[in-house]
Specification:
The chain is of the alpha+beta class and about 220 residues long. Helix content is about 15%, strand content about 25%. The chain binds a DNA duplex (13 and 13 nucleotides) through strand 3, strand 4 and helix 5.
Length: about 220
DNA sequence: CGGCCGATCAGCT
DNA sequence: GCTGATCGGCCGA
């Protein structure tokens, strides 16, 4: 590993490379579950956690995608870039969301990182959230995750393969709970794309943003 | 320009 | 379950 990477603790062995991202959105959404996401702040502090929830946005034919029907603007330009770039957008006048661009360059596919279970830098994440929040809630939901990790449009276009500010690593260790699928969250009227099972999550993980009805446990209370 | 809407969240009923 | 907050982006006139 390079001197610079060594200085900030990047492990080239575990870090996900370009090849990992150069696949379709469904495959990547499934593969990212259980991976470690690392964020290093400007001051050098390291925040990290395990990805527990993702959503796939397939391409120009996916009417729920920002790039539906080939829509291409300044805002979503990154979606058309190389696999492994971070596509960060601002929405609802107050929230940011982070995606991983995948597929072939020129084809706008991406995976939205919806939730993460914090495993490092909890105090800094709590401070960034600016409110009293339980640890497992710090990165529960895409807006909360970006707030906790201080991710905004400044990181749009960041190359996760080479970045010293944001990247993914393979994570050894157990994954508590089976990976299940559900429809994506928060979509408008986009026909069949509203109900397509393009969301992946670890069933039973407390950092998942919303428990899908389809996998609610029999006898379990409402949530 | 004007107007509408959103890959959300928190707080209340 | 419902709704207000809050504003950049986008599209149509």
């Amino acid at each position: 590993m390079s001197q610079r990477d060594h200085a900030i603790g990047v492990s080239d062995k575990r870090r996900l490379g370009r090849r990992f991202f150069a696949t379709d959105a469904e495959t990547l959404a499934a593969k990212l579950i259980g991976m470690k996401l690392v964020r290093v702040l400007a001051g050098g502090s390291r925040l990290e956690g395990i990805v527990v929830e993702t959503e796939a946005y397939l391409g120009v034919h996916d009417l729920a995608s920002h790039a539906a029907k080939g829509r291409r603007t300044l805002r979503n330009e990154t979606m058309y870039g190389r696999p492994g770039l971070a596509y960060v957008y601002f929405t609802y006048g107050m929230h940011h969301c982070v995606n991983v661009v995948c597929g072939a360059e020129g084809e706008p596919a991406a995976v939205l990182v919806r939730a993460m279970e914090p495993i490092g830098g909890v105090e800094l994440m709590t401070r960034a959230r600016g409110r009293d929040v339980a640890t497992h809630e710090l990165c529960r939901g895409p807006g909360n995750l970006c707030r906790a990790l201080s991710i905004d449009r400044d990181l749009d276009g960041e190359d996760l393969v080479t970045s010293t500010r944001l990247w993914f690593e393979r994570c050894k260790g157990k994954q508590a709970g089976p990976v299940v699928r559900s429809p994506r969250i928060g979509l408008g009227a986009v026909g069949k794309w509203r109900s397509a099972p393009l969301r992946w999550l670890i069933d039973g993980n407390p950092s998942v943003s919303r428990v899908p009805k389809a996998v609610r446990r029999p006898g379990g209370g409402s949530r």
